[in-house]
From TrEMBL:
<dbReference type="InterPro" id="IPR006527">
    <property type="entry name" value="F-box-assoc_dom_typ1"/>
</dbReference>
<feature type="domain" description="F-box associated beta-propeller type 1">
    <location>
        <begin position="3"/>
        <end position="239"/>
    </location>
</feature>
<dbReference type="Pfam" id="PF07734">
    <property type="entry name" value="FBA_1"/>
</dbReference>
<protein>
    <recommendedName>
        <fullName>F-box associated beta-propeller type 1 domain-containing protein</fullName>
    </recommendedName>
</protein>
<dbReference type="InterPro" id="IPR050796">
    <property type="entry name" value="SCF_F-box_component"/>
</dbReference>
<dbReference type="InterPro" id="IPR017451">
    <property type="entry name" value="F-box-assoc_interact_dom"/>
</dbReference>
């Protein structure tokens, strides 16, 4: 974050590799997001770096670079015009990395999901769920971002499904699951989490029980469990955290294989 270093890390083996500098141009108003995933066709792991430059008139311009672990190099992609990618990390599923993206058509801002296929490195778009009370667009210059009930949303993955977290500011959080990948009418609302004082501003569910009775989540400061039967939240104690809080949390698949890392010498362990 402060010295522009970017690492690939296998938490199972603790092996890591520092990536070559991408030469990302730094701007005073610049949102940077990353995505990571496996290109099965080319047997390659890839990192996607997107830095979007914007101004007070909501002019969006997304610059894109892709790193190949096999070649250990970056390449510049064609810019994605009139789009501001969410600063959340991209969500990898079905050979693609996905982001929540805001578009500007000149009169309003509207939202959708943008995917990047790691095989052919081409973009696609997904529609959002349709239901009463959900507005996909917002007029330019609208300053209602933090009014009670204003909706914000982000992407996630629960198990093998792409998920959409619809956050009604200080009211509730609805979790939608894409049961069939990129199919019409595929979004199903799984659970609704109530807002209570003390829960952080950025709720991200990590796991939902099969019957939806319990939800493991991260709220921006700690890991919690929501018990729907008793309608209550409980903090999860994590050993050796010393009360410092949890800035981020994710779910990963364990593996003892680190492609192109196993033969790298002088690679220090990252705890």
């Amino acid at each position: 974050m402060y010295n522009n270093n970017l690492y690939l890390w296998n938490p199972s083996t603790r092996k890591n590799k520092i990536l070559p500098f991408s030469s990302c141009t730094k701007y005073s108003r610049c949102d940077v997001t990353f995505g990571f995933g496996y290109d099965e066709f080319n047997d390659d792991y890839k990192v996607v770096e997107i830095y979007g430059v914007y101004d007070i008139h909501y002019v969006y311009d997304a610059n894109i670079k892709i790193y190949s672990l096999r070649s250990n190099s970056w390449k510049i992609m064609k810019k994605y015009s009139d789009a501001l990618f969410s600063s959340d990390s991209g969500v990898y599923l079905n050979g693609c990395v996905h982001w929540a993206v805001a578009h500007n058509d000149g009169s309003c801002i509207y939202w959708d999901i943008v995917s990047l296929n790691l095989k052919n490195e081409k973009f696609g778009n997904f529609a959002l769920p349709s239901f009463d009370g959900f507005d996909h667009s917002r007029s330019l210059g609208d300053s209602s971002d933090f009014e009670l009930g204003t909706m914000n949303w982000s992407l996630g993955k629960l198990g093998d499904f792409l998920c959409l977290f619809c956050d009604y500011y200080k009211v509730k959080l609805d979790v939608w699951i894409m049961k069939e990948y990129n199919a019409k009418g595929c979004w199903i609302k799984s659970v609704s989490l109530p807002y209570v004082s003390g829960v952080g501003p950025c709720i991200s569910p990590l796991w939902i029980s099969d019957i939806g009775g319990e939800v493991l989540l991260h709220d921006g400061t700690c890991v919690m469990v929501y018990d729907s039967k008793n309608d209550e939240y409980k903090c999860v104690e994590i050993c050796e955290m010393n009360g410092d809080g949890v800035g981020a949390a994710t779910v990963y698949a364990e593996s003892l294989v680190s492609p192109y890392l196993d033969n790298i010498e002088n690679t220090p362990e990252m705890q």
